[in-house]
Task: inverse folding
């Protein structure tokens, strides 16, 4: 993955995409309760929470508790707090998905076009059942239908385009004696595919017949698998604060793999952050606890932490939110949505450092207290040391690469969490 990973939020109108995006970022996409509020895809920066390298007790001189490197961890981008690092990641709010998008309904063509740039999808599902398939207000709608038709739309879009050309494509394939990967990649590159993605698709299927002999059912299987490989998807079951959500959650949970599902209440996260900003509550984004003035007074602080008094209405809302969301689910869930998307993508955080002995970036004069782990890049599963080098250093010629302990690592070695993920790149002739 040479460019930065991009995660797209998709879902029917009013499922809560913009609210989710707001809850994950500091930006403010326009929020509204009717279809197509978001006309243009909104890019924004979200923050992926990862355990930072500074908290690793296996690193030289870092075995104490808390590890001393933590106090000097100063990310150039994002932040690091007690060893939990927030790494910026690009998010895209893709609007216009309604049933029939592959035929151009809604903002269908534009929707599908925007989708091509995404490495993984977060499908925001309104699990309260208060919006129908088109996003209009209703009651008792079954959101498990959304999960099914969403995937179906993408499959039909890819399949439709492929079938239109299948005759000519097959003839050419035979004439030039191409491999199945070459022929399919020729068709799928427009979806942001790579030869590796196509190869993985075909590996999973292990088809016996050559491409020119595939029947329609086989082609459909190929497209289905390709869509799963190219667009790994997390289901964000949103609006869990709503009283109707429970039965819908159980139904979807029975049908889907548990690792694909995250429960969330985007609006609760937005609300809590707003109250915290206004000085009504203490709330660390993504955490289970929210403290009010009364809570702190009850804990023995007569000043109530300096928090403002809430009126009856506001107090009730906060209490409801605690009961319906925080106590039942442990958090508003929005951070887990991003974490899960990074997991399905297999993202590996890599920490490039200038000095492999100190983990610093060689800032002059900073000495013993020099900041460490300034940089962190997210690379895809299966990336090598060389891939990361080129991503960070571009075309600069590589002399060699060092990992922890000053050991040299080969450029073909894989990077993974805890392995070859703290690297120092040396430019020049080896
Ligand atoms: N109850 C509830 N409502 C939500 C939640 N998230 C979003 N909404 C509401 O759903 C409506 C549509 O939200 P929006 O983010 O604009 O949806 P989009 O069209 O998918 O971008 C708005 O009225 C939001 O306030 C949630 O977690 N719980
Ligand atoms: Mg929107």
Result:
């Amino acid at each position: 993955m040479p460019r930065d990973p991009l995660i797209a939020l998709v879902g029917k109108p009013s499922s809560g995409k913009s609210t989710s995006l707001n809850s994950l970022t500091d930006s403010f996409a326009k929020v509204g309760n009717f279809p197509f509020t978001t006309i243009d895809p909104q890019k924004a920066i979200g923050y992926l929470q990862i355990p930072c390298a500074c908290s690793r007790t296996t690193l030289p001189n870092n075995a104490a508790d808390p590890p001393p490197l933590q106090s000097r961890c100063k990310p150039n981008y994002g932040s690091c707090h007690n060893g939990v690092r927030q790494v910026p990641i690009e998010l895209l709010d893709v609007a216009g998905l309604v049933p029939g998008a592959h035929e151009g309904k809604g903002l269908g063509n534009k929707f599908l076009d925007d989708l091509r740039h995404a490495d993984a999808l977060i499908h925001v599902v309104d699990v309260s059942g208060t919006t129908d398939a088109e996003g209009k207000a209703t009651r008792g709608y079954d959101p498990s239908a959304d999960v099914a038709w969403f995937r179906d739309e993408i499959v039909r879009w890819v399949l439709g385009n492929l079938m239109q050309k299948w005759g000519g494509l097959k003839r050419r394939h035979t004439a030039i004696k191409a491999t199945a990967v070459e022929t399919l990649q020729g068709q799928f590159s427009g979806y942001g595919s790579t030869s590796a993605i196509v190869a993985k698709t075909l590996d999973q299927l292990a088809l016996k017949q050559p491409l020119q002999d595939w029947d329609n059912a086989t082609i459909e299987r190929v497209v289905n698998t390709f869509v799963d490989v190219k667009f790994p998807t997390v289901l964000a079951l949103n609006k869990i604060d709503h009283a109707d959500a429970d039965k819908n959650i159980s139904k979807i949970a029975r049908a889907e793999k548990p690792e694909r599902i995250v429960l969330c209440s985007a609006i609760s996260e937005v609300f809590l952050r707003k109250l915290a900003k206004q000085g009504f509550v203490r709330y660390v984004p993504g955490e289970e606890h929210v403290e009010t003035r009364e809570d702190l007074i009850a804990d023995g602080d007569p000043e109530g932490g300096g928090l403002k008094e809430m009126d009856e209405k506001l107090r009730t809302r906060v209490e409801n939110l605690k009961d319906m969301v925080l106590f039942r689910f442990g958090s508003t869930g929005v951070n887990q949505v991003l974490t899960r998307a990074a997991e399905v993508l297999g993202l590996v955080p890599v920490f490039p450092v200038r000095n492999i002995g100190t983990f610093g970036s060689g800032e002059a004069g900073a000495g013993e207290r020099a900041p460490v782990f300034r940089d962190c890049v997210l690379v895809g599963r299966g990336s090598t040391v060389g891939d990361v080098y080129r991503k960070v250093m571009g075309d600069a010629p590589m002399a060699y690469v060092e990992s922890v302990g000053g050991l040299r690592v080969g450029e073909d070695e894989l990077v993974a969490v805890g392995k070859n993920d703290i690297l120092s790149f040396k430019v020049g002739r080896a």
